[in-house]
Specification:
Elements lengths: L10 E3 L6 E7 L12 E10 L2 E9 L5 E4 L7 H7 L7 E6 L20 E10 L2 E2 L7 E7 L12 E10 L6 E12 L7 H7 L7 E6 L7 H11 L6 H4 L7 H7 L3 H4 L5 H4 L6 E15 L6 E5 L17 E12 L2 E17 L7 H6 L8 E6 L19 E12 L6 H20 L3 H30 L7 H22 L5 H20 L5 H41 L3 H14 L4 H13 L3 H9 L5 H33 L1
Antiparallel strand pairs: 1-2, 2-6, 3-4, 3-5, 3-7, 6-7, 8-9, 9-12, 10-11, 10-13, 12-13, 13-14, 14-17, 15-16, 15-18, 17-18
């Protein structure tokens, strides 16, 4: 370490010729590991030495001085001094002669080779500040792996972790564990640690420096807020060393498996200064919350890149799964409390035969993958199938492996019809009870099934309509004679102008056309029966298609009505425009479309649409009333416009 200057025991010389001297005013807590090009952020005040009125540089926390280390973007002496600082440290530097601006000072009032004085606070160095400049969480990667898999703040992570305090009460290493699973979404780990984990890819190692309120977990923050009635958690950043609710956390100390050795307020007495973690991420399990309160969580046990593992389970699909269920106590699965032993079950998505939590989680699953679904008591009840019912007032974890998926569009058409009608009826019941948002959900699910069945029927009818029909013997003989006569006439007309090779090619073509006619055989009785059966099947498919189209129109009409009831007029107009194009003959859809036009301010178009319905008995009264109301509205708007123009011209 540089020798202490004689004039002040706290001042040290950073160069052999004492051209740069440093005095620490406030200590920091984390030494930087700098490399050329790292970005550094400073609060700095620069003056001419012993001339405080000659200030040439003044940068604050809100407008810090940012430069790249080793790129000669600041004076040489200041760069030497800053490289010796720690994060949060405040120091005073005296920079002499050539270590300053040298012979070319930037300010007219500064003499060449003037001695300068800098008051500097190091905010951050080349690493990322994850708290938007407040310095609460500083993250840097010490070893980067070539991986694109990053955990999220709710995931379970497998890590090697070492943590220590840099100063304060109880300084030293407090956790040193290898290959340990941590549940980031549990609220039991420091907020700064959880925030930094999403910056670390699988196989990488990083260092996290956490200070202020970021040292504490979400649950500790809630406890502190309840203890001191703090409405704004940012207050803790200004005063991080508050007295915590020690009694509460003393009770939590017995659950060390929760905290896994991480610092809690009872252990550190509310004073912990800065905490540093060194973490290596080995693996993680993606955890997804199906509801905002976290009452239903789906854990992907073999998660990879998200785009490769999107869910392929949809509403109405038939699943075959291997499942097993346990009771959850104190946040952990109790292996002795097995509710459902491991077995194979078949279940249908969206039929509400399972509990609420499973119904929410199933659409997020995919085939040949393993999942764990955790449900709080309010979501683990309500199953209609007794063999899949769970006890009341307990949390449940269900392990599921999807072995087979039969998609709804692969089912027989009559099954699709039943499932679509079931969802429509549930939507009607909800609409009657004025639960319009839930009704829309059921209508949309039913409409999706109907549209898939419609495409399937249209493709089948199109394929059958393109089949080749056979001809009778008389038709074949007549066609052959006409072909021979046409060939002879062509030969007589063009014979003198054709070369020998062209004449030979014409004869071959005529022969091929005659062979094609010879392939067709007379229709037998069996073929006539098969053809008749195909026509009957086509007729049945046409009738079924007509039924699905009618159901589609009804669903669209109900959807438009619910959107109007909720005041979503633009959405209602979009749905009605598409529905009228699909089925322009449906008068009820036209009525809903006119209503949507009226609510979106397209009054004249709405009147024209209602006028198409005023002669129909079932819509006459309602259409005429709407036309009258809209015309009154137009007249009123016209009078207002006339008044505006009159005042403008007067």
């Amino acid at each position: 370490f540089p020798e202490v200057c004689s004039e002040d025991e706290r001042t040290v010389s950073l160069t052999e010729d004492s051209g740069v001297q440093k005095q620490i005013l406030e200590p920091g807590w984390l030494s930087p590991e700098l490399s050329v090009g790292d970005e550094m952020s400073l609060v700095v005040v620069g003056r001419v030495y012993q001339q405080p009125d000659k200030c040439f540089l003044n940068r604050t926390v809100n407008d810090p001085l940012v430069f790249r280390y080793g790129k000669r973007e600041i004076v040489r002496g200041l760069e030497i001094g800053v490289s010796t600082m720690k994060q949060g440290e405040r120091a005073n530097f005296i920079v002499k002669g050539a270590y300053g601006y040298g012979a070319n000072p930037p300010w007219d009032g500064m003499k060449p080779f003037a001695t300068l004085e800098f008051d500097v606070t190091l905010l951050s160095w080349g690493k990322r500040d994850l708290t938007e400049g407040r310095g609460g969480v500083m993250f840097s990667e010490t070893d980067r792996a070539m991986s694109w898999q990053f955990p999220e703040p709710l995931d379970d992570v497998l890590v090697d972790v070492k943590g220590w305090r840099t100063h304060g009460e109880g300084s030293g290493v407090f956790v040193d564990k290898e290959q340990v699973w941590l549940s980031l979404g549990s609220g039991l780990f420091p907020r700064g640690f959880v925030r930094a984990m999403k910056e670390l890819s699988v196989g990488s190692t990083g260092r996290v420096a956490v200070t202020g309120s970021w040292i504490f977990s979400d649950r500790q923050m809630i406890t502190a807020a309840e203890e001191f009635l703090l409405e704004d958690e940012n207050v803790l950043d200004e005063s991080p060393f508050f007295k915590p609710n020690v009694t509460y956390w003393a009770e939590m100390r017995s659950e060390n498996r929760h905290l896994l050795g991480f610092p809690d307020l009872a252990d550190i007495g509310g004073k912990c200064g800065t905490v540093v973690y060194e973490v290596k991420l080995h693996n993680f399990h993606r955890v997804v919350h199906c509801v905002p309160d976290g009452g239903v969580q789906v854990k992907f046990l073999d998660y990879g890149i998200e785009d490769d593992y999107r869910s392929d389970v949809e509403d109405g699909d038939l699943l075959s799964v291997d499942m097993q269920a346990w009771i959850v106590k104190d946040g952990f699965r109790d292996w002795d409390e097995e509710i459902i032993p491991k077995r194979n079950e078949t279940m249908t998505v969206g039929e509400e035969e399972l509990c609420r939590g499973l119904e929410m989680a199933l659409p997020r699953l995919s085939k040949a993958r393993k999942f764990h679904i955790r449900m709080e008591p309010m979501y683990s009840t309500g199953a209609k199938r007794s063999e899949l019912a769970f006890p009341h007032h307990v949390s449940v974890e269900v392990a599921i492996n999807v072995t087979r998926v039969q998609h709804v569009h692969e089912l027989p058409l009559d099954e699709i019809w039943k499932r679509a009608m079931s969802r429509k009826e549930k939507g009607n019941a909800l609409q009657t009870n004025k639960s319009y948002s839930d009704a829309i959900s059921y209508y949309e699910r039913s409409l999706k099934m109907v549209e898939r069945a419609e495409r399937r029927l249209k493709d089948s009818i199109r394929r059958k309509s393109n089949k080749t029909f056979t001809i009778t013997a008389e038709e074949k003989h007549r066609a052959r004679s006409e072909l021979q006569e046409a060939c002879k006439a062509l030969h007589d007309m063009m014979g003198d102008r054709l070369s020998s090779s062209e004449r030979k090619r014409a004869e071959e073509l005529s022969s091929l056309m005659q062979m094609d006619l010879n392939v067709s055989q007379p229709v037998t009785d069996g073929e006539e029966e098969e053809q008749q059966q195909q026509e009957e099947e086509e007729t049945e498919e046409t009738k079924l298609l007509s039924s699905f189209l009618s159901l589609r129109s009804k669903l669209n009409s109900n959807l438009i009505l619910c959107q109007i009831r909720l005041g979503r007029y633009s959405t209602a107009h979009r749905i009605s425009s598409r529905a009228v194009c699909q089925d322009p003959e449906d008068k009820k859809l036209l009525y809903r479309h006119a209503q949507a036009l009226a609510h979106t301010g397209q009054t004249e178009d709405a009147i024209r649409s209602f006028q198409q319905l005023e002669n129909l008995p079932e819509f006459s009264a309602a259409a005429k009333e709407e036309i009258r109301r809209l015309k009154v509205k137009l007249a009123k708007a016209d009078r207002q416009d006339r008044g505006v123009y009159r005042r403008m011209l007067s």
